[in-house]
Amino acid sequence: MQQAKFWILAVVALAMVVALEIKLQLWTVASTSPENNASRRLVDFAGIVLWAWERPEDLRFIDPDKTAVAFLAKTIHLRGDKVVSRPRLQPLRVPDSALLIAVARIETDGSEFPSLSRDQLSRVIAEIVTLAQTATVAGIQIDFDATVSERTFYRNLILELRARLPPSLALSITALASWCQGDNWLTDLPVDEAVPMLFRLGADREQIRRHLASGKTFASDRCRKTAGVSVDEPLAQLPRVDRLYVFNPAPWSSNAVNSLMKAYE
Amino acid sequence: MFLITVLLAWAPLVSACGPFTLQAVFAFTVHPGFPLERYAAGEIGVVQPTFARSYLYVAYRHLSGAGFDKPQERALLELWQERLNFRWDPKDEDAIAKWNAARSMVAREVKGPEIEVYRHRDKPNEYQTYLNCPNDAFLTAAATLNDRSKKLESAIVKDWVTAQDLVFANCSAGKHIPAPAPPTTEPLVRADRDYQIAAASFYSGDFAEAEKRFRTIAEDKSSPWQKQAPYLIARTLIRKASLGPSESGQPSLNEAETVLNQLLSNDELTETHEAARRLLNIVRLRLYPELKLQELGKSLRENPGPSIKQDLWDYTLLLDKFLGDDDSAETKPEPAFVPQDELTDWIVTFQTTSESARVHAAEKWQQTASLPWLFATLVKAKAGDPEMEDLLKAASEVKPDAAAFPGMSFHTVRLLSESGRNKQARQKLDELLAEQRSRFTVSAQNLLLGQRMALSQNLEEFLTYSQRLPAGITWDEDDRQLPAHLDQDSETDKKLQHQVRFDIDAASTLNRGMPLEVLKQAAESEALPVHLRRDVAQAAWLRAVMLDEPRVATELVPVLRKLVPEAAPLLVDYASAPENLKRFLAIYLWLKFPGLEPVVDVGIGRGTPLNEQDTYRDNWWCGAAYIAESDKASSENLSEFITAEQRATAEKEFANLVRSGAAPNYLAQQVIEWSTKAGTDRRIPEALHLVVRSTRYGCGDKETGKWSKAAFDLLHKRYPSSVWARRTPYWFQN
Fold this sequence. Notes:
A: 265 residues, alpha/beta, two-stranded parallel sheet, B: two-stranded antiparallel sheet, 59% helix, globular
C-alpha cells in the first residue's frame, strides 16, 4: 500500500516537473516570438473594454480591475492630399488606475477620394504617434474601415506605425467582420489584436450572426481573441474571447455598465 | 477565456450597411433626402418624426407658410453640412497660412515653429482637448505684423516675431511667456509686448494672470490694444469658467456678463460690439439655459435673422441638453417649460409617440387651427379616432402647392387605408401619382408607391408599384444615411442610382407572402423590368426545385433561359430530363450558380454574377433566417389581392424552405443521395467537389463540417482518380 502511494506520488511529482518544464519551454518560446510579445502587451487588460466615443464621458465609477477604456482620442480625415486631424474635444474622466487605449479613427468619405500618397501616409502616422506620448495610455487602437482600394495604404500604415511605437505599447485595430471571415489580409499584420466589429454589420449581419450562433469562430486567428459589440444590438452568442469591447451610442452610466457586467458574468 | 453571452437591452435592428456593401435608401428616416437645398427651400416631402430637430424646425416654418429667404436657406445648409461632416472649413488652414506668409516676409531665415491649435486640458481632464488658438488669433497677428513692418525697424519687428512665436507655442502645450520690453523702447513696442505677454498667459491657461494684464491694458490709453481689452477680459473669464476649477465657473460667467454689458453700452467700443454680442450669447446660454431656449425658440419661429445658423445650432444643443439628443436611447422627462414655447412644444410633441402627445396635438390643433398642429395631429392619428373625419376634411383643403401637401396626402391615405376605405385610398393615390407626382420628393414618392402596392387588386398592379427608385445610395456604416460618393461616369454606379429595386415591403411579400404559383406568374409577367424579373424568375425556379415542384420548375425554364442565358444549357438539360433526374440536375445547376436564391433581393442586393462566387460569402442562399427576422413585420401587411388560402399556402411553403436548412448541408445531402441511386453519373464527382466548396464559401451552420467531410470522403473513396478528387484536397470544419 505504502509502495503504491510512493509510486503515485512519484508519478505525480514527475508529471509536475514535466509540466513545469513544458511551461518553461513554452514561456521561452513565447518570450522570443513577436506574436507572443504582442499578446503580453495586452495581458493586463480587463475582460471588458468600454469604447468612450466623442461625447462627454465620466467613467470614474468603473472598476479598473474589470474594465478598461478605449477612448476616441483623435479623428483623422483624409481628403484629397489633405490630412486634417481633430483631437477629442469632449471631456473624459477615468479612475487613475484605469487602463486606457487611445483610439484614432481614420475617415475617408465620398466628397473627395484620398490621394493615399506617401506623404499622406507619413502625416497620418505622425498624427497617431503623438497619441503614444500620453503617458497613461497602454495601447493605440486604429479604427479605419478601409475599402479594398485603401488596404495597401492601411497595411503600410500599420507596418510603419508599429515600428515607430514604443515596444511596450499595444497596437490594436478594429476589423470589419468580413475581414475576419472572408479575407486573409490581416494574417501577417503586426497588430496585437484585431477587434471584429459585430454591430452595424449591414448586409453581413445575418450571415455573421448565424456563423457565431453555430458556435464557430472567425477564420482569421487575429480576430479570435476579442470582439466588439454595441449595447443597442444584442447578440445571442459570441465566440469565446479574452476581451470584449463594448460600444454605447449614448454616454455610459453606472447602470449601463452594471447591466453589461451582469450579462458578461 | 470567457464565454460571453450578451443579451442586452433590445432595440430595433438598424438598417446599416457594411462598408463593402452599398445600400439603397428608399425613404430617408434620420434626415431628408439629398440635396438638402430643396428641403431648406420648402420641398419637405413627408416629414418624419425621426428627423433630427433642426429639420423639424425647418419643417415647422414651412408648414406654417413662413419659410426662409435665400441667405437663411444657405445658413441652414451650412449648419447641416457641418453637422453631417460633409466638409470642414478651409479657413482653419487659411488663417495659419496667412500668419506664416506674413511671418516669412520679415523672418525668412528662421522657419516658424509648427503650430498646433488644440491643447490638452490639465489633469484630471487630460484626455480632453480644446481649440486654444482660433483663427482670429492668427489673422490678428498677421495684420499686426503687416502694420508694424511699415512702422518699425526691421530688428524690432523681428523681435516682435520671436515673441509672437512664443505666444503661439502655448497653443498646444506648456507655458511660454515673452520677456517684457525694456523700458527704454518706444511705447508702441512696449504696448505690443504687454499684449503678447497677456495673450501668452491666456493661451497657456494662466487665466488669472491674463485677466490682470488685459485689465491693465484696458486702462492704458496709449495702448493700441486698449479698445480690444474689455472684450479680451470677457473671453478670459469665459475660458476660466470653462477650463478653470469648477467653483470658479459661475462667478466667472457672472463677471463676464457684467463686462460684456458694460462693453456693449460703451459707444467708444463699437468695433468689438459684434464679437461681444456673440460672447454674451454664449454666456447667457450657460447662465440661463431655459430662458435662452425660450428666447431662441421664439425668435427662430417668429423672426429668424441673419444669425439663424448660430441660433438654430444653440437652440438644438439646448434641446439636446434638456431632452436628450436625437440619437439618445434614453429620453429625459419633458421639462415643464416645453408647452410655454410654441416651436419647442411642436417639435417635442411631433417627436413623441405617446397617446398623451396625440391628445395634446389634437388639442393644439383645435385651439390654433394651424397647419403645423394639423399635420402633427394627422401623423399621430389612428383609424377610429374621434377627430379623424375632421382631420381628413382639414387635410383635404391643403393646396397642392403647399409645403404640407405631400405629408398631408400620405397620412390621409394611411388613415383611409387603416379604416378600411381602400377604394377611396386607392383613388386618392392614383390621382396623386398621376397628377401630383412631381411635387413629391423621391422618398415621398416611394412612400406613396408602398401604400399603393399594399392596395393592389391584382398581381400586375402589385408588380407595377413594387418598383422603387432609390432616394439615395449609402454605405451607412454609422446609421446616418450619408450619400456614398458615386462615379457619375461609371455605368455600374449609374445603375445603382437610376435602376428601380424592391424595397423591403415588396421583397418580403414576394418572399413570404406569395405562394409559388403566384410567384411563377410574377416571373412570367412583363410588368417588371428585366433585372427585377430575372431576380423573381430565379427565385421562383429555385423555390419550385426546393419545394419539389418539378412541373412548375420546368414551366419556368423558358422564362429563366431568356433572363439567365448563361444557365441556358443546364436549364435545357433540366427541362428535357426524365422526372427522376430532374432534382439532381437542378442541384447541379445551383452548385454552379452560387448566386441563385429562392428569394428576391432587397435593395441593391448581390452584385456578383450568379455563376461566380461572392467574395463575402453571399453564396448559395444564407437560409430562411436571413429574411425571417427583418421582414416579419412588413410581410404581415400583404396586398389584398392575395387570398387567405394563398397566404396559408405561402406560409406553408416558406416553412418548408426553412426546413431545408443551411444551403451547403442541403446541397450535400441531395448530391450524396443521388450518388447512391446513380453512382455512375459522370457529374457526381464534380458535384461533390462543388459541395465541398460550398461548405467553405457558403453560409453554413454547426452541421456543415459534417456534410463537408461526408462529401469529401465519398469523392475520394468512390472517385479517387478523378480530376475533381485531385482538386479537392481538403474538407472544411468551419
